[in-house]
Amino acid sequence: MQQSILARYPARSLRVYAVWQSAYERDTLDAARQSAQDLFRDDRVRHIWDGDNAIATWYTRKGPLESTAVFIWDAHYLYTSEAQWKDEPSHLIDAWHPVINGMDQLVSMITSLSTER
Length: 117
Known about the structure:
- There is one protein chain.
- Strand 1 (16-21), helix 2 and strand 2 (45-50) form a beta-alpha-beta unit.
- 30% of the residues lie in helices and 18% in strands.
- The chain has helices at residues 2-6, 29-39, 54-62, 103-112, and strands at 16-21, 45-50, 76-79, 92-96.
């Protein structure tokens, strides 16, 4: 994400919400903080700790990706700038799981957006 999108498009008006969660026992708040520092060096990224996996559980049950997992992790959801969260998020453009398998598609979608500033 950092190299493929954020570094390639420094002027693009993007917001990234990196949700760190507890998928494995080693996934702690401290580990998330370290990963956030190591992986994302961009002011457009907002980091959220979801230690109870509430966001991931919501997306697994009501989101656009089908899964038989307890909760989805390692996924991306791309929304337009008009997106709002009321009962659920609006204006979804793309979703993929796992992130690495959808990176080319995500880059293509972001490249095609006309929000360059």
